[in-house]
Amino acid sequence: MVTYNKMNIVPVDPLRSINSGQVFLWEKYNNSWYGIDGNYVLKLTLNNKELYKFNVNIKHRIELEHIEIDYNSFPENKNWIYQYFRLYDNQEKINKTLSKDQIIFNIYKKYRGLRLIRQDPFQCIISFVCASNTNIKRIRYMLKNISRKFGKKVTYDGIDFNLFPNVNELSEASIQDLIECGLGYRAKFVRSISNEIKSNLDLKSLKDMEYLDAKSELTKLYGIGNKIADCILLFSLEKTEAFPIDIWVYRSLCQYYGWMFENISVRKNKKISEKEYKLVLKKINEYFGEYSGYVQQYLYYHIRDSNKRKW
DNA sequence: ACCCAGGCCCTTG
DNA sequence: CAAGGGCATGGG
Asked: Strand, helix or coil at A104?
């Protein structure tokens, strides 16, 4: 008889999570999904269940229901699924945050198992710089090209992969190279950011900084503003209070949380200005707290799903 | 042909 | 501050 604390049961819907606009280099071959995260190839083999439940009190995964989920990686990292899907986050607080009101609670119930993903920071930075003013299909296209051109080639399970280039490798890329990867006007941003990180920015140090301090470091980089910085902080630098506001999330906020816009000079249904962004963010953090980022991911997924957008 | 896409930068008023 | 234009490119 296994006893456990309910709060340590973490529901995970892996496929929904890796196909929710956070990561862009997962693909299915045969019966497994393979994803590139920095210099790792991650492999997931699932049965036909949608929702998996992990008890993270136990050092290694135990079966609460009949779970068949194989997760391997190249190079080997036995613990990656715990890190990648943030199984050690405080589930009690997450539940509380996503039950803050009826609106978010309904969305939470509908997509339960959607997780924030903890990514390789450099890949995350490049990913979201490429994500500006384009669609997800093209983000995948650009990042794949970058990997093909500048990442190391590896073979795993008899399949050829390209890892994502590290800073030093991508610093070798010229603007012309990056344009050939399909980046368009983003090429100059990626070039500048790679050089900047290589010469004088330690990404690890950003994890130890306060949210807004780390954010101001990121927004100094050419091509990174409020929204992209929040994506990077949330998805790769441990800032779960970060709340990226793109056009979709903003629409969603206007629709469901209009009351937040009263008494602050923020106009609904228009492009959000830098000042407005900061005002809204402050309200969000006051209301949802340190796990605001989870709310963002659920809102984003929900509104895009309701609009039948593709991933 | 037109408009939009997980925005940001730059210039003007 | 704010408003507006420009930006590369591909898909609907």
From this structure: helix
Closest CA to A82 of A63, A99, A111, A57: A57
Could you report the per-residue pLDDT of A5-14, keeping only the tens digit for each?
Answer: 666 789 999 9
Q: Measure the CA dihedral A143/A146/A150/A155, to 10°.
A: 50
How many angstroms separate the CA atoms of A78 and A310, rounded?
32
pLDDT grade, residue A225 (50/70/90)?
very high
- Closest residue to B9 by CA to C1' distance? A223
In the residue annotation, A283 being an active-site residue is answered as no
User: How many angstroms from the chain centroid is the CA of residue A136?
Assistant: 13
pLDDT at position A80 over 90: yes
Which is nearest to A20 in space by CA: A114, A91, A112?
A: A114
The DSSP code sequence of A21-68 is: SS---EEEETTEEEEEETTEEEEEEE-S-S-EEEETTSSS---SS---
What is the rounded distance in angstroms from the CA atom of residue A71 to the CA atom of residue A45?
Answer: 6
H-state helical runs in chain A: 14-18, 80-84, 91-97, 102-110, 121-130, 136-150, 167-171, 175-180, 187-200, 203-207, 211-218, 226-236, 247-256, 274-288, 292-306
From A43, A215, A227, A283, active-site residue: A227
CA A269 / C1′ C1 distance in Å: 19
Q: How far is CA A60 from the centre of its chain?
A: 25
Q: Are A97 and A292 in contact (CB under 8 A)?
A: yes
The 10 Å CB-count burial string (b at 16+, else e) for A170-179 is bbebeeebbe
